[in-house]
Amino acid sequence: MTANPASTALWPAPHASGAVDATVHVPGSKSVTNRALVLAALASEPGWLRRPLRSRDTLLMADALRAMGIEIEEGVGPDGTGEAWRVLPTGLRGPATVDVGNAGTVMRFLPPVATLADGPVRFDGDPRSYERPLNGVIDALRHLGARIDDDGRGALPLTVHGGGALEGGTVSVDASSSSQFVSALLLSAPRFNQGVEVRHTGATLPSLPHIRMTVDMLRAVGAQVDSPESGGEPNVWRVTPGALLGRDLTIEPDLSNAQPFLAAALVTGGRVVVPDWPARTTQPGDRLREIFTEMGGSCELTEQGLVFTGSGSIHGIDVDLGEVGELTPGIAAVAALADSPSTLRGVAHLRLHETDRLAALTKEINELGGDVTETADGLHIRPRRLHGGLFHTYEDHRMATAGAVIGLGVEGVRIENVATTAKTLPDFPELWAGMLGA
Ligand SMILES: O=C(O)C1=C[C@@H](OP(=O)(O)O)[C@@H](O)[C@H](O)C1
Ligand SMILES: C=C(OP(=O)(O)O)C(=O)O
């Protein structure tokens, strides 16, 4: 958790003068876009992504696949409406160089893809990417037949020496530090000679909905997958080798990025509508309907989308966020403004996200006068009267949006490097101003 000295730009977080009443069109899901790109690149025929998220993480994914020979044309869709990317798969090529930035999806999902390239693929990224766990993917790929050079830490930077194919087979992985280890191995597995059987061995497994998202999206492109939910053994997933279909897929809005806007309704006692909220989804952000209702709001899925209304009161919550860890910063922000304490549990692995999110939230909320303590696996938040001040973001998009939520209720909050929201939501300041009617 190091502050960014180079980024001195401060964004005065708007203070809400009244209840918000807005419709917010939230851009596409990072997690769905990056899975769709990988699956389309591995398919045996061209495919379309409609309404993809255009953000740092997804552009890094597209550029990385292009570096390995995949053509991705950015344009409008087959019916002439809306942004759509056409993906033209081909034999994967090396040598290539991949910049992962600080995108967990890129650094974990692509080394398995690179084993299928016909030459070396070098992976590098932001300084923080060197600290994020990758050992589960590296060790598993070596076990499945890959040759990988790293510096022995089980992390970036590294080179995957693609041999044009990977044997595959059965592998055990401790994915307690990131569900993305499991997703990474499953996504490329239809192209491994023997497919894969992944057995998770760790004591805990975070972000299960994201693994379900991987399984659902694999099945949607024709892969055969056995999973614990479909009657298989707990913590075991099997993917059969086979060709993948090119699909025409419309990307759902990013429900985790809807969070700050729903939080705005909660904090100001207002109303926010998010169009195109899916009736059924594996996105973890869907849990917000339940969590933010318990914290004082109410919601309804209508023809217009999700209508979320704040009551004017915010209640504390005691909740296990292990399945939906990426929602923690936004929930912590709301909890800091609540009328009773909160306990957020099950999220020890957040210490290895974009930054150490538990330390960052504790420090930044406390510097505004809050009373937050870290626990072994989460946060205790005792609401206090907060004051304005500088809110550091540590190159973490969700720290920036969490600070903006606090700023709605507390005058004089200034957010350092709001541009870091570009990781998944480049238009955040404009969307925020639009919601506030500015
Ligand atoms: O697979 C995915 O798209 C993601 C999985 C989760 O990662 P972890 O399991 O590492 O928390 C989540 O936090 C991240 O934002 C996106
Ligand atoms: C943890 C996150 O991202 P990543 O995909 O980089 O792991 C996140 O978006 O909250």
From TrEMBL:
It catalyses: 3-phosphoshikimate + phosphoenolpyruvate = 5-O-(1-carboxyvinyl)-3-phosphoshikimate + phosphate. Its EC number is 2.5.1.19. Phosphoenolpyruvate binds at K30, G104, R132, Q180, R357, R398, K423. The active site is at E326 (proton acceptor). GO terms for molecular function: 3-phosphoshikimate 1-carboxyvinyltransferase activity. InterPro entries: Enolpyruvate_Tfrase_dom, Enolpyruvate_Tfrase_sf, EPSP_synthase, EPSP_synthase_CS, RNA3'P_cycl/enolpyr_Trfase_a/b. Pfam families: EPSP_synthase. Residues 17-430 form the Enolpyruvate transferase domain. Keywords: Amino-acid biosynthesis, Aromatic amino acid biosynthesis, Cytoplasm, Transferase. 3-phosphoshikimate binds at K30, S31, R35, S178, S179, Q180, S207, E326, H353. It is found in: Cytoplasm. Gene3D superfamilies: Enolpyruvate transferase domain (3.65.10.10). Belongs to the EPSP synthase family. PANTHER family: AROM/DEHYDROQUINATE SYNTHASE (PTHR21090), PENTAFUNCTIONAL AROM POLYPEPTIDE (PTHR21090:SF5). HAMAP family: EPSP_synth. Catalyzes the transfer of the enolpyruvyl moiety of phosphoenolpyruvate (PEP) to the 5-hydroxyl of shikimate-3-phosphate (S3P) to produce enolpyruvyl shikimate-3-phosphate and inorganic phosphate. Monomer. This is 3-phosphoshikimate 1-carboxyvinyltransferase.
